[in-house]
Amino acid sequence: MTVTSIELLASSIRLHQGGKIHAGKRTMDSDQDGWRLTAFHAKTDADVHADHWEVHPEAEEVVSCLIGKIRLYLRPERAGQEEEEIRLVAGTAAIVPRGRWHRIELDIPSNIMVVTLPRGSRLEKRTEA
User: Fold this and answer.
1) Under CATH, what is the fold of the domain 39-125?
2) Residue 30 gets which letter from DSSP?
3) For the purposes of burial, counting CB atoms within 10 Å of the CB of 17, is it exposed (0-12), middle (13-18) or buried (19 or more)?
4) So where are the chain's domains?
5) Residue 51 needs a FRET pair 20 to 30 A away by CA distance; which of 5, 23, 108, 126 works?
6) What is the pTM of this model?
7) Residues 103, 90: Cα–Cα separation, whole Å
8) How far apart are CA 123 and CA 103, in angstroms?
9) Dihedral (C-alpha) 57, 59, 60, 63: value to the nearest 10 degrees?
10) Distance between CA 82 and CA 79 in Å, rounded?
């Protein structure tokens, strides 16, 4: 096997069952099998779809701030509760529980890395309270 470098901010890395790893073109296909590691540079809230909630029903998700400052929000589980806010600075991460709706907002342009099992992932437009 030939070992080559991967442009991390432009690729998607798939971690397959059985230990195989595949790097390739970034895709939003949420029906693919295996875990997906994605790193990206976000300049604005639009780059992290801050106006949408996201959920991963099949697995937890690691959200990591590599460079910059971001805020991870967890949607209330019951009516009347407040959003939970987790502040992440460079070099920190949080684990979003399986099936928990969440979103990201930027404090400054940031490099973010996420790892999850994308199967069944969904987005839902956020409505202001």
Assistant:
1) Jelly Rolls (2.60.120)
2) T
3) exposed
4) 39-125
5) 23
6) 0.89
7) 18
8) 10
9) -90
10) 9
